[in-house]
Amino acid sequence: MAFQPQHAKLFRFTVDVRTANFTIETRERMSDEAWSLNVTGRLLASGCALDEKAHNEATLRDLLARPAFSGETLYTNTAAIGLTYGPAFQWVRSVHVDGEADVALGEVQVPAVLGRTKRSSTHLHCILH
Asked: Helix, strand, or coil here: 92?
């Protein structure tokens, strides 16, 4: 996803309630152009809840063997291209990336700034509802 000064983007986050798959798409604000797909993924209830049939064990092993970079580095890099996440949206703690295989594995944690809000009864952050 490329960001340019003075060009606002409109984001669309969609969750398939049957499969927990999600997409994030963007397009120029105030435009009728087609949506550009930026991210696809799957929401999990907690931690690494994938069963043995849902992932490739060798891929996970390879990813974990790679050095992780910190969430702080991720957010510094996104800010450099114009995408700034406030403290409540900085969930990523670390990321292992295999650029050749086009896969990544991230560790996420509820930010301390959210305190003990109603998140215990919510599966998605309030911005995603």
From this structure: strand
φ, ψ of residue 97 to 5 degrees: the values are: -125, 135
pLDDT by 10s per residue, the chain, length 129? 445 556 677 888 898 888 888 888 888 888 888 998 877 777 776 555 544 544 577 878 888 899 999 999 999 988 887 677 888 788 899 999 887 777 788 888 888 877 755 544 444 444 443
57: its two tokens: 């064990």
DSSP letter at 73 equals H
- What are residue 116's phi and psi, to 5 degrees? -105, 50
Burial of 92 (0-12, 13-18, 19+ CB in 10 A): buried
Alpha-carbon dihedral sign for residues 90, 37, 6, 70: positive
Cα–Cα dist 100/95, whole Å:
15
Q: What is the pTM of this model?
A: 0.50
